[in-house]
Amino acid sequence: MKGVLTDITKCIGCGSCTVACKMYNGNKWIEDRAPTDGEQAQLADENWTVIRKSVVNNGEAWRFTKMQCLHCKDPACVSACPSRAFQKSPEGPVLYYPQNCIGCRYCMIGCPFNIPKFEWNKTLPVITKCMMCSTRLDKAEVPACVPVCPTNVMKFGDVDELLAEAKEIIANDSRYVKHIYGEEEAGGTCWIYISDVPFEELGFRKVPMQSLPKYTKPFMHNSLHIAAPLWAAVLTGLYFFTKRRDEVKAATQKSEEKTEPEA
User: Fold this and answer.
1) 199: Cβ–Cβ under 8 A, 6 or more apart, which residues?
2) What's this model's pTM, rounded to 2 decimal places?
3) I need a labelling partner for 258 at 20 to 30 A (CA). Which of 96, 161, 186, 244 fits?
4) Does a structural domain hold residue 237?
């Protein structure tokens, strides 16, 4: 099973990986609502990779963290999906097949890392996320983000070998915290991290250390096929309600600005 080891101490926040991701996958820039870098960086329907900036050491230092799907070894999104739109490949990537998707968005609820995103603004929306450039892996190539990094933040390879290397690094270098994020989180992931700053200070989620699907699979497969259409309608209704509320608020503020008397 393949994966990626990310050394946060080496990242300079250049954003080369975000550019490579968008170019390879044909994604658009949506900086007006979801920046790809900085303290407000966030994954979105067109942002499959972002660089999050964190201020650490009481404001005396910065750290930059590449964020994307962690490709769980036993993915909750796969367990939650009633239509096999999500599938775990033997090579490592967690893949999404839009032709199978029924729009229930249970993958978004099930993911402990809050990774899958929905194309709310499109007429025919689908779920989006990093798929570790699986088409490149099929050709014995590495994910597009890995080779463009000027400081070699990421290393692609066999997950077990990467874990062994990560353990050796943190054992022999006192700078690193004694924790490999992704070794045990959610039962283990194929995208793992080492850092010289505690992961909670970098915004990493604290998630269960055991695989989630073994707890949820019986319920999901017995009930989701019934609840999915209803839940999809609820989520869609909430989205349009919130969108309409924000539009009314913006229009009201604009009207008030026009009617304010000049000093």
Assistant:
1) 177, 179, 181, 193
2) 0.82
3) 244
4) no
